[in-house]
Every structure is written in structure tokens, then in C-alpha cells.
Amino acid sequence: MIAYLKGILASTSADHAVIEVGGVGYLVGASSRTLAALGPVGEAVQVHTEMLVGEDFQRLVGFAGADERDWFRLLTGVQGVGARVALAILSALEPAELNRAVAAQDKAMVARANGVGPKLAERIVRELKDKAGGIVLGPSAAAQVAPVGASADAVSAMLNLGFRPAEAASAVAAAEEELGTGATLDALVRLALRKAAKK
Q1: Which of 21, 97, 98, 195 would give a disulfide with 7, using CB separation of 3.0 to 4.6 Å?
Q2: Contact criterion met (CB below 8 Å) for 40 and 9
């Protein structure tokens, strides 16, 4: 199982990106939101991933944030929602909007996504109402874009210490904002731990 990819963005298209890791190019399907968050070709990127395996295919799907990946898992657990439809929903609605739509049972909001009719939208909000509470949403857009470099390593360190993905990303983003983009890994982790402890 591949949990995430960290490498260089080699190319992007309408529905996927190619990320080069150690000389190997991984084709990663993604929502338009994740593709927009990746930044320019040639830059370092990190994406959370989900491996889909069927009888006649293997497919890697990437996400800018762990909350988007968690929603993908929930959505594909609903009958009639495959990977393509789940990515269409995640392209139309960011995780916070999807959370609100499910909580409010707003099927019209979910039906804004391509390929989602009223009946499927109703099934999605009904089936996910009790399951969506476990997803932790990042407090800001900055926390939802996967960090790179020292900040990505700092998030990884925080996760190893038992913090949830959104907590780790939020604390590291706040620390990086205070210290500046040239901050060392050690400094980032120390300040992020202090910020996380205050919450």
C-alpha cells in the first residue's frame, strides 16, 4: 500500500498528474482541486494516495490533503459511487463544503458534481450522515495543501508523535508562517509542538 508520494511534478492533465519519485513516474488520478494545489511542473510535491486494485486494473489516486482522501474513501463506500464520480464530487466541493452538505442533508449541493443525479445525491447524504463525523477538516486552505520540503518532514514527524493529519498540518503551517519558509526542520517541529499544545 502506498500512503503518499513525495517527488517532482513531471506533468499534469485534466484528470491526473505524473509525479517522478526516484526516477519512476507515477500516474496519479486526482480531483481538479488537488491538481490546482500541486503548483508548477518541476516543483517538489507531496500527495496522499489511495491505491485502487481491480481484476484488470491498478490505479493510484492522489489528494492534496488527508481530509480529501478520507472523503474519497467514504464516497466510494456508497453503492453507485466509483472513483470517477467520487473525484467529480471532490472537484465540485471542497471537504468542508461536503461536510456541511452531508450534515444538512443537502442533496442539491452534492448533485452539483458531474455525473451525480438527484437519487445518487440523496443516497450519498443519507448513507454518510453518521460516518462523516470522524473526518477532521483543516482550519485553513493552507493546511489542506500538502506541504513540501522541511514542512512536509515536520508534518511527518508530528504524525509519528500521534497527532492527527489536520492537527499536524495546521500546527506546522502556523509555525512556518511565524518562522518563514527557510526554517529548519528542528525549529519547525519545536514551534509546531508548542502551537499544537496551546490548542
Answers
A1: 21
A2: yes
pTM for the complete prediction? 0.64
Sequence-separated contacts (24+) of 121-126 with Cβ below 8 Å: 123/78, 123/79, 123/80, 124/75, 124/78, 124/81, 124/89, 125/101
Which CATH number is associated with domain 66-133?
1.10.150.20
pLDDT score at 62? 95
What's the CATH superfamily of 4-63?
A: Nucleic acid-binding proteins (2.40.50.140)
pLDDT at 140: 39
List Cβ neighbours of 32 (8 Å cut-off, separation of 6 or more): 14, 91
| Rounded average pLDDT per 10-residue block, the chain, 199 residues | 90 94 95 90 94 85 92 92 93 89 90 91 90 53 46 74 75 82 81 81
What's the grid cell of residue 113?
458534481
Measured between alpha carbons, how far is 124 from 140 in angstroms, rounded to an integer? 25
Cα radius of gyration rounded to whole Å, the chain: 17
Which cell is 64 given? 492534496
